[in-house]
Amino acid sequence: MPASIRSIFDRELSRIRDNLLRMGSLVDTAIDRALTALGDRDVALAREVIEGDAVINDLRFTIEEECLTLMATQQPTASDLRTVVAAMNIVNDMERIADHAAGIAKTVIRMGDLPLLKPLVDLPRMARVAREMLKKSLDAFLAHDVEAARAIAAQDDEVDHLYKTVFDELLGIMARDPSTITRGTYLLWCGHNLERIGDRVTNIAERVIFMTTGTMKELNTTNVADTRRV
Amino acid sequence: MSKIRVRQLDFYYGPSQALRQISMSIAEREITALIGPSGCGKSTFLRCLNRMNDTIAGTRAVGQITLDGADIYATDFDVTELRRRVGLVFQKPNPFPQSIFNNVAFGPRVLGLTHALADRVEQSLRGAALWEEVKGHLRDSALNLSLGQQQRLCIARVLAVEPEVILMDEPCSALDPVATLKIEELMRELKRQYTIIIVTHNMQQAARVSDRTGLFWLGELVEFDRTTHIFTRPTHATTENYITGRFG
Known about the structure:
- The complex is a heterodimer of chains A (230) and B (248).
- Chain A has a single domain, classed as Phosphate transport system protein phou homolog 2, domain 2 (Methane Monooxygenase Hydroxylase, Chain G, domain 1, Up-down Bundle), CATH 1.20.58.220.
- In chain A, 85% of the residues lie in helices and 0% in strands.
- Chain A has helices spanning 3-40, 43-74, 78-111, 122-143, 146-176, 181-213, 224-229.
- In chain A, helix 1 (3-40) packs antiparallel against helix 2 (43-74) and helix 3 (78-111) packs antiparallel against helix 6 (181-213).
- Chain A starts with a helix and ends with a helix.
- Chain B has helices at residues 42-48, 79-85, 100-110, 117-127, 131-134, 147-159, 177-190, 203-209, 227-232, 237-243; strands at 2-13, 16-27, 31-35, 59-67, 70-71, 86-89, 165-169, 195-199, 212-217, 220-226.
- Chain B is globular.
- Chains A and B meet through helix 1 and helix 3 of A and helix 8 and helix 10 of B.
């Protein structure tokens, strides 16, 4: 690419990065608000999270469109190509993360006035770790930081471990008292959504490693089902 | 399997060294693309492969190039036979100011391959994907053809002497996008039978058509690998910087 084209490419790529970070911020807020809605039993806030999901979906298509345009008009190669492809994959994972946040919000609406089965302890912890992972993954994306991306996979183990704790605890309560099954299942759904968020962020970390090194490799080969068998 | 093997090739124009310690193996029936900025030595290297540089006074090659194991710079190697086996297609189409038929028949006549000449001409034009367009006008002047057709005629001219390797020095640089795509499609057809080496400034073209790509830089072969590897995850920073437009 001649210098003039390179500067156009850099400008377009910078716009994609900016939008990707904006999307990350919206997704992070969605997780935070979904958990707040769950803790506060705030149905109105839950509805806002669901409505906000449409904005995130639109932003995802905007970024994908920008990536396609960049590929069609600038024909990026090597690390440039990997960055654009990684961005397309990352926005797809972030869109799914937002869906999981919306999934929690929908559960809050379904729960209506039913009292919480138990005080929320591990679910907010899972959310905290997952949000931290998301932030770190986007920082790693910006900095092309492979080590930081690898560390994110270790944090996903923490999310999986917390999910196992929640799962076992809720299963125990429901087994002892079947009248709690409905309320227990609602919380299990929330836990499952958070566990999947951790997996999606791990995908983002994998894309950062691919973008930086060109290596495609799954970071966490054990899934939560394996964890539960331990 | 390697068709051509190059070992520690140095090349000089008088006192000026144009190539330094080039070593590479060119696989049979593959398309090898050579890329790099102007003056990097890629065309000089291409012309070493059929000793076209011998025609330039004061040039000197040191090292070894083998074709099917035979040293092409050995004193007893027949250069005329080498150039029949290793044909060259130039940057600009250069048809002779003669009929289409005579352009293709020229090489075979020089080499005494005149038996069933019309069949040979037809097969060569078919091989160059030109037959259907010119079969009714074989006696017309080649200069009346479009540039894209002229370039395919030049390829037919090379095919007519039954080469094994086809060298192409920027074969599409004078052509429009449609004619370029036709030549690229033709190259993919030809590689079933021939070993093709192409010098190109068009990196997208190298990415589209070639199996392997080599980057030349200041007379050295910086990186030579599978094309998919070069364009998605090059090993050397120089390659990365060149193909992403950070220099060059």
